[in-house]
Amino acid sequence: MTAKSPLEYFPAPRRSHFCSQCGSPVNRRVPEGDNRERDICDHCGAIHYQNPRLVVGTVPVWENRILLCRRAIEPRYNTWTLPAGFMELGESTAQGAARETLEESGAKIQLGDIYTIIDVPQIEQVHVFYLAQAVGPELDPGPESLEARWYDESEIPWDDLAFRTVASTLRLFFEDRKRGTFGPHHYTLESHR
Ligand SMILES: [Zn+2]
């Protein structure tokens, strides 16, 4: 029992080499009636479609301040993010956004409307942020966050934000707040990062 477990990582781009149904090697080709290459198992017939992943999160507000979490995990360790994460099987986008907020910050929130829907095709993801009102200032960050805190607009660590989807969502939020109307906003982030 001396074998060390390798460093875990998140494969991107995603490639399958073996069929998850029967364990046989897969082949990459265009299935009949399709127009894209897929990983196909010629042993059991399974076609392994891959589709974009959904990241769901919130813009939690308490007395004009915004909740940010400092990441305790890669990628972007030690940078600040809105609470967000991959949607799990069997939950709705709203449930996922509320769950991620609780897990990463401990904040108790009332979920509002959808605020941003951001396509990020080069990383095969769609990010969705909901507006959220905190019911109190108490925070209790979980193991995925080094800390969580409420930020005034003037204190936002713009140079230390984890993702462009977070930065653009925050920028829109502060613009909208001046106007008094809040989204929803749908846009695409192209290339780099
Ligand atoms: Zn198979």
Most strands sheet? 8 strands, mixed
- What small molecules does this complex bind? zinc ion
Number of DSSP strand runs = 11
What is the CATH fold-level name of the largest domain? Nucleoside Triphosphate Pyrophosphohydrolase
Number of helices: 2
Rg, alpha carbons: 20 Å
**Mean pLDDT across every amino acid position:** 94
Supply the CATH class of the largest domain. Answer: Alpha Beta
Give an overview in words.
The chain has 193 residues and is an alpha+beta fold. It folds into 2 domains: 15-50, Ubiquitin Ligase Nedd4, Chain: W, CATH 2.20.70.10; 53-188, Nucleoside Triphosphate Pyrophosphohydrolase (Alpha-Beta Complex), CATH 3.90.79.10. It contains 2 helices and 11 strands, in the order βββββββαβββαβ. A hairpin with an 8-residue loop joins strand 5 (65-71) and strand 6 (80-81). The mean pLDDT is 94. The protein binds zinc ion (ZN). Residues 19, 21-22, 24, 41, 43-44, 46 line the site of zinc ion.
